[in-house]
């Protein structure tokens, strides 16, 4: 398998983040009381400095020139920093409690700063004198946002007391109070917004939500009248996850960015208020993930939420799907890839359709008849004809789909269960349909897996057999796409392969240290891919019972595991909020290995030719490039055995590059440990020590360690040669004595 392509990181440890406009500088503040300045294009921290605040920073903002940074701390102080010259310019005291809002006046020549703290007042600071000019009192709860008119003469403030106040900054008085809610953004004055009811040139502003729900509204400040209210596909309610908490204007592109209660960012195009793009924030636990689309171009993700998220793998753009009212637990996709199903704790199942052209997704059918949370779901494999769900109420239900499935959610089809079967004694954790749509297998917390016959349409389920052997609950069951076997994974840490003929256990795979949560067949049924509570994903070869690869990219339970129809990519999703796409690089690695072997054969042939032609320098360089010490040794032996070998070796070694000499020194340290090759090593070392200075030698990488390694073996070789020399001298002495003794008498 391959590498991580699509990670979703956990939440940032930063308390406050702010960027300049245009966005060139990004500054973050952390709990460690450090400010860090980032080059966001290069994703690098350019500098960091310690904030003078004694407690964490609660708010930050840049001035219009992006040279001054204001930070508001939880200690009630405000500090201004010159980010160019890198020093603190002001220390403003007087605020009561946490300074949760700081904003510069848009006219930089005025050198004014506005702030709000826990006392609900808005302070106007003169930066020339570092004095508070006045405190604007109107709100009875913390102020959440400030917005200025282009001429800088007026300001609109919003607070948690559900009112917006329009201020005249010249007289420093409130002109009008409008009962609305939360964040406020002014509409640009030089654009035409007549299509949303803006008829005059008076101040108009947008509020993020009204009465605690998730509607954008446009207000006329002069009459305190709402001139436009956004319409939503479904009626919002109190506590709706779509509730908006913050607005940010993007004037250059005439767009509006909003933040929802679930940390998602939505970009709206003005003046139509149509959703252009969505960015997902923290996902919490990811419970399931499936590939989606005709070419597996998207993934659909179930997180610890009632919403589904559909990501485009090419652009990472996201669409959030609303429909379920409680946490979505499981997903499955039909064969064609455009239709998928989901089930949730709200006891319902839903069928969704993705438009292959536009990518839009809508709910086209739903069914609600389970008595408890629906924890598993699967769909038919041959045709889009039925769905099977397993629930915590211990039952399995079969839902028939209509022959013509609706195209839009306007005429949503209501599903009714064709079959309801009390299948297990405990929660049904997994259900799967065979490739021919004739069999169904279920796995339960009661440690059993059961095989059922789906029969003809309209027929009840018939129990064919029970698979017994797991010591704890069964988490996942899957049919093989090729053979008449099925696999099951359990909380006992094992995976078992079962025969559909006699219901016997054929193989057991053990390797996970904790529960095995998901499994799938890959490589045309010859391999298994499993994921567990230990955060590991393991690839098994069924024929040999061997784990051939372990993928370690998650820090928590891996709940989601799915492969594309071509088996060339796999997606995993974990409770650590990360989603990772893996690419199968087996063919690429095999091709690279084959090319490498072919290259080695060609180089060996070329080396043989060079030795035959006595081109020793090229032969030695080629042998070193192959990084094969034995081949280099053969070249050295060939040089020494040739005509005038010592001089030829000296000439060849000295002509090598420095990196090649470093390799030679490393090889010599190895050769010197063997009596058969020590003479060749000593010959090369002699050339180097004779013609290279100690300073030059010590500059070689690892030279000191290699030279120290040469000493003990060289001493041992010298002792051995000394003993041989003594023995040879004794033989010569004996020979001389034998000649004298046997000499004829004269």
From TrEMBL:
PROSITE patterns: WD_REPEATS_1, WD_REPEATS_2, WD_REPEATS_REGION. This is Transducin beta like 3. One of its GO terms (biological process) is endonucleolytic cleavage in 5'-ETS of tricistronic rRNA transcript (SSU-rRNA, 5.8S rRNA, LSU-rRNA). One of its GO terms (cellular component) is 90S preribosome. Transmembrane segments: none annotated. It is found in: Nucleus, Nucleolus. One of its GO terms (molecular function) is U3 snoRNA binding. It comes from the Eukaryota. Keywords: Nucleus, Repeat, WD repeat. Residues 604-738 form the U3 small nucleolar RNA-associated protein 13 C-terminal domain. Its main location: nucleus. The keyword Phosphoprotein does not apply. InterPro entries: Utp13_C, WD40/YVTN_repeat-like_dom_sf, WD40_PAC1, WD40_repeat_CS, WD40_repeat_dom_sf, WD40_rpt. Gene3D superfamilies: YVTN repeat-like/Quinoprotein amine dehydrogenase. It comes from Oncorhynchus mykiss. WD repeats lie at residues 50-83, 92-135, 136-177, 321-352, 367-401, 421-454, 467-508, 509-550, 551-582. Pfam families: Utp13, WD40.
């Amino acid at each position: 398998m391959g590498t991580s392509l699509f990670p979703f990181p956990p939440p940032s440890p930063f308390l406050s983040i702010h960027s300049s406009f245009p966005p060139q500088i990004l500054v973050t503040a952390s709990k460690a009381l450090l400010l860090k300045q980032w080059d966001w294009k290069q994703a690098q921290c350019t500098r960091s400095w310690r904030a003078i605040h004694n407690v964490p920073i609660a708010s930050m903002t840049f001035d219009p020139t992006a040279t001054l940074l204001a930070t508001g701390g939880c200690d009630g102080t405000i500090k201004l920093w010159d980010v160019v010259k890198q020093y603190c310019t002001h220390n403003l005291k007087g605020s009561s409690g946490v300074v949760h809002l700081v904003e510069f006046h848009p006219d930089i020549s005025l050198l004014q700063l506005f702030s709000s703290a826990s006392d609900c007042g808005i302070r106007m600071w003169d930066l020339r004198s570092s004095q508070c000019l006045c405190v604007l009192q109107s709100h009875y709860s913390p102020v959440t946002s400030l917005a200025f008119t282009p001429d800088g003469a007026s300001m609109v403030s919003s607070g948690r007391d559900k009112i917006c106040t329009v201020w005249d900054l010249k007289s420093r008085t409130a002109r009008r109070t409008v009962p609305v809610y939360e964040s406020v953004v002014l509409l640009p004055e030089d654009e035409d917004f007549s299509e949303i009811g803006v008829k005059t040139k008076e101040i108009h502003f947008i509020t993020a939500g009204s009465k605690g729900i998730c509607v954008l509204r446009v207000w006329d400040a002069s009459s305190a009248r709402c001139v436009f209210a956004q319409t939503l596909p479904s009626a919002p309610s109190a506590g709706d996850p779509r509730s908006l908490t913050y607005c940010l204007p993007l004037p250059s592109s005439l767009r509006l960015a909003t933040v929802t209660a679930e940390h998602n960012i939505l970009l709206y195009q003005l003046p139509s208020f149509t959703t252009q793009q969505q960015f997902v924030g923290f996902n919490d636990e990811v419970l399931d993930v499936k590939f989606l689309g005709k070419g597996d171009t998207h993934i659909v993700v179930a997180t610890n939420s009632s919403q589904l998220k559909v990501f485009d793998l090419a652009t990472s753009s996201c669409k959030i799907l609303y429909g379920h009212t409680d946490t979505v637990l499981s997903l499955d996709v039909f064969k064609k890839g455009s239709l998928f199903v989901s089930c949730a704790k709200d006891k319902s199942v839903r069928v969704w359709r993705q438009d292959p052209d536009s990518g839009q997704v809508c709910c086209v059918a739903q069914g609600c008849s389970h008595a408890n949370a629906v924890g598993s779901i699967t769909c038919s494999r041959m045709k889009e004809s039925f769905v099977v769900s397993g629930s915590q109420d211990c039952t399995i239900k079969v839902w028939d789909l209509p022959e013509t499935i609706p195209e839009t959610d306007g005429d949503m089809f209501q599903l009714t269960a064709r079959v309801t079967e009390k299948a297990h004694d405990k929660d049904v954790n997994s259900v799967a349909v065979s490739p021919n749509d004739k069999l169904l297998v279920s796995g339960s917390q009661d440690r059993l897996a059961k095989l059922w016959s789906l029969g003809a349409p309209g027929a009840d389920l018939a129990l064919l057999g029970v698979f017994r052997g797991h010591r704890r609950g069964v988490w996942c069951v899957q049919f093989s796409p090729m053979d008449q076997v099925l696999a099951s994974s359990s909380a006992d840490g094992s995976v078992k392969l079962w025969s559909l003929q006699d219901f016997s256990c054929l193989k057991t795979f053990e390797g996970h240290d904790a529960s095995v949560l998901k499994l799938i067949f890959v490589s045309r049924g010859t391999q298994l891919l499993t994921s567990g509570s230990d955060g590991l994903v393991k690839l098994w070869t069924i024929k040999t019972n061997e784990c051939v690869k372990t993928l370690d990219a998650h820090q928590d339970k891996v709940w989601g595991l799915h492969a594309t129809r071509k088996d060339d990519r796999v997606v995993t999703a974990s409770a650590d909020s990360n989603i990772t796409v893996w690419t199968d690089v087996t063919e690429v690695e095999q091709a690279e290995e084959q090319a490498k072997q072919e290259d080695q054969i060609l180089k060996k042939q070329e080396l043989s030719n060079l030795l035959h032609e006595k081109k020793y320098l090229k032969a030695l360089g080629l042998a070193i490039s192959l990084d094969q010490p034995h081949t280099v040794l053969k070249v050295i032996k060939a040089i020494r055995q040739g005509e005038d070998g010592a001089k030829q070796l000296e000439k060849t070694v000295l002509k090598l590059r420095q990196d090649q000499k470093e390799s030679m020194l490393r090889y010599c340290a190895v050769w010197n440990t063997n009596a058969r090759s020590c003479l060749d090593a000593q010959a090369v070392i002699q050339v180097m020590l004779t013609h290279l200075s100690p300073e030059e030698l010590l500059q070689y990488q690892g030279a000191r360690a290699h030279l120290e390694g040469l000493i003990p073996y060289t001493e041992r070789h010298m002792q051995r040669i000394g003993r041989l020399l003594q023995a040879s001298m004794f033989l010569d002495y004996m020979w001389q004595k034998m000649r004298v003794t046997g000499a004829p008498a004269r």
